[in-house]
Design a protein that fits this description.
The chain is of the alpha/beta class. It contains eight helices and eleven strands. The chain is globular. The structure holds 2-phosphoglycolic acid.
């Protein structure tokens, strides 16, 4: 079931998302979090850091798994997703390095890199809370629109749309890696709860496809309609043109 919550602005959306995570960690100090990168969760991570500084949350037993990583970028590359996480969250809270899990973007054997991450995901069982953004093309993680969906960790070719969308983080689109390693759809769907954040009206079409009642591998996020517990947090700007059919929770 997908529940929609609408927030006045990005800050209140981020704050509520952080509160959701902190409530979970208080109930379950060794919670397993699935984490996302991109511009959307930046506010959430900032709020988590703030709450940590105010001694409202303890990350020492929290376990994390990130969704994806660019192929070819080492952890210390400023555009790598590991670097992003270190910069915005890991270096600013008391999370234990041993509890951080990341797909390897730098490898000689792609199959081995995928199998290793998949094994770590299988060993942990279920992610308690998976944070997701959504691509303007409907991707989740780097599960790109395609004829088929892949369940397990895999290497994916980024679509032209994703390369264009992500070029803003690089000097130009030629620098955006063409491939990524990503959790599969099955890994994401196994999470107990999914919290999807969207704060930009470029995501409206993808969200509407996600609420449409149709599962379409060309809109990977549409699979979330089969999940038992998905929360979608949007701001008012995004909510304006949404065709969500149940009554939305307005915050
Ligand atoms: P964004 O990316 O948060 O930078 O918009 C989201 C995504 O591509 O999943």
């Amino acid at each position: 079931m997908i529940q929609l919550a609408i927030f006045e602005d990005y800050q209140s959306l981020s704050r509520q998302a952080a509160k959701h995570i902190v409530d979970l960690i208080r109930k379950k100090p060794n919670a397993v979090l699935g984490l996302a990168t991109g511009s959307t969760p930046l506010g959430l991570y900032q709020e988590l850091v703030n709450m940590y500084k105010e001694s409202k949350v303890d990350f020492s037993n929290v376990v994390t798994f990130n969704l994806d990583e660019y192929v070819g970028l080492p952890h210390d590359h400023p555009q790598s997703y590991y670097y992003f996480m270190r910069q915005h969250l890991f270096s600013k809270v008391n999370i234990s390095t041993a509890n951080i899990h990341f797909p390897r973007g730098l490898f000689e054997d792609a199959g081995k890199a995928c199998r290793e991450y998949e094994q770590q995901l299988q060993d942990i069982g279920r992610i308690d809370l998976q944070i997701l953004g959504i691509g303007s093309n409907g991707h989740i993680g780097f599960n790109e629109p395609a004829d088929r969906m892949t369940l397990e960790t895999h290497i994916t070719e980024l679509t032209r749309k994703t390369i264009t969308d992500n070029a803003r983080f690089f000097h130009d689109s030629g620098e955006v890696p063409r491939k990524a390693i990503t959790m599969g759809i099955g890994n994401i769907m196994r999470a107990r709860t999914i919290l999807l954040l969207a704060n930009n009206d470029t995501k409206t079409a993808a969200l509407n496809a996600m609420f449409s009642g149709v599962i379409d591998p060309n809109i990977p996020a549409s699979i979330l309609q089969l999940h038992e517990n998905v929360l979608v947090f949007v701001n008012r700007e995004v909510a304006k043109n949404l065709k969500y059919r149940s009554t939305a929770l307005v915050n």
